[in-house]
Design brief:
The protein contains 5 helices and 5 strands; from the N terminus they run βββαβαβααα. With 172 residues, the chain is α/β, with parallel strands linked by helices. A hairpin with a 2-residue loop joins strand 1 and strand 2.
Amino acid sequence: MRRKTPIRILALDLHPRSFGYVVAESPSRLLDWGVSSDRRKHGAGNVLVLKRLRQLLDLWRPAALVLHNPSKKSRRPSPKKDRLLERIVTEARSRRIIVRVSVERAADQGEILTKYENARRVAEHFPVLRRELPPKRRAWESEHYCMSIFDAAALLFSQRHPITARIISGRC
């Protein structure tokens, strides 16, 4: 049976003091995107979850939350990022939101692309994001602030879990 109301999915690209987010209703309909950050040295994770993530969850009321956690496969532990991830999962589950944490690498999916190539592909799929696409990064430059938006959107496409795939395609 098909749902009459579209299902919203929130994808997050986490960093210790910020996160990029994308809210989508279908593979072709993007509702909201952006980067939320807090530059405090201590307590930035609490502020991100308590203020900024809660506002997103209240505003959009997503059915699913998609996260990427590369620290599961990395050799170096990241306690700040792990605590932030735990807070986000707890907040989402308290609102009965389906949480999917992806630990896949690009090498596991076959083709290996640079971050800029992934961002360009996302911008081709969502023309509204073309104006947000930063210029290609040179070796001596740091990553652009908006690149986190494209990482979150790419994460949304890379999910192959059956439940998330059904939610994204609207067959749920």
